[in-house]
Amino acid sequence: MKKQHPKALRRKKVIGTVVCGIVWLAASVLAVLALWYDNTFDMSFAELLYTIMAPLGGTGESTVSNIISSCLPTVIVLGASYLLFVIALWADTRACRILRRAGALFCALALVASSAYAAHAFRIVEYIRLSNGETLIYDEHYVDPDEVEIVDRDGEARNLIYIYLESMETTYASVADGGEQAENNYMPNLTSLADEHVSFSEDEGLGGFHSVMGTGWTMGALMASTSGVPFSLSVFGEQSHNSLGDDGNFVNGLTALGDVLEEKGYAQEFLCGSDISFAGRDAYFEQHGNYELFDYYTAIEEGYIAQDYKVWWGYEDKILYEIAKDELTELAAGDKPFNFTMLTVDAHHVGGYKCTRCGEAYDTKLKNVISCADAQVAEFLAWCMEQEFYENTTIVITGDHPRMDTQLVKETDFYDRTVYNCFINAEGNTPTPDENGRVFTTMDLFPTVLAAMGYEIEGERLGLGTNLFSTVPTLAEAYGYDWLEEELSKYSLYYKTQFVY
User: Fold this and answer.
1) Would you place residue 223 in the very low, low, confident or very high pLDDT band (cuts 50, 70, 90)?
2) N or C: which terminus of the chain carries fewer CB neighbours within 10 A?
3) What is the set of domains in the chain, with CATH numbers?
């Protein structure tokens, strides 16, 4: 057997060391990210893809920095351990060569193991299984708002204030109040509002709606709650949601709440404290109701914040509410009924943003953030009640989706993590609706909001949603939550050709 030249041997050893190092680093990064994700988030792989593949204008820098700060130290330690292993076994003794081969095998096995764990943590197998199926749920159950009558019952158009509270689950309340917290209720004001006004629930306690596939992040929730259809655009391809609105169309086959109210002569505005281009929110609200848009950059232009001011995703909720008061005052002075929709941000994952108004009553940041969010919306509502427009205004307060991280809710089953809802000055079809015993999802908010505003809906259904003020069962009640979740996870030709095209 021909003996290899020493330089060739060294080159071979260096190449092998580098290759093994890359494999080890890949295994380390994959394992650490999967572990962090598994311990931090509770969402499907499809929702993860939708979130990370969406246009990222205005993305909160803290999310990226949190991932880096949480994962990088462990990756560095694992990388350093590999370097120490290489240094210790660099000699060309027989024992070192055997151990290096064993190390190479270990690196390969580590990559296989970390890949398997990542597939489990990110729920990739479930995603592949479901996405390969096809559903007929839209063919059989979708109700086009353009094909049914939506009539104002008393002929007097009511204003709408729609407040989306970021990640506001009912689980933040105490067990005694219907939540999941052992001792404290971190949302006492919202709990009281739900008790005093209309709030739908699955049982006698504080409850809310369930998040199904395509509604578990903000854009998905905004779309589903205003159109009765979840966000299920392709991740890749010509009709991918990664280019939302770039061609002038954003699910232009859908008729949404904004479309209905625009036709009825409403002035409409959407307010948020971040870059509204994030995830295509600007395209959606411009193309479905011609909303006036007020975001982080508008706040700078209007002088509410300085040119270089930025915290969290843009500006915090204490500023948002002050802007909302000014915008509502201006809308109310106009000659049209109005739909004013706003989205808070301080409770966003990971861990929320603690502003200067938040106290130190509790031992973790998120507890104080939720308590602060609860107090601020209550103060804003108190202001609304003092305004002349209040008597002719329906106010809807809901969360957008469950927490995407698992702080405060780690031990709670996802199904039990319902999202808050409250309808104030509701003009539903019955004076005293049966608020309890309703199993419903984000999609049911669309017809329910219109009903709360005093509109009669032919057949009581819009999109895939059902008017909760009626006795018509929701799809979740008729077929079960698990069935609905699975069907919405599948491919739909109807969705592609009728809504996106």
Assistant:
1) very high
2) N
3) 6-131 (no CATH), 137-271+282-335+379-500 (3.40.720.10)
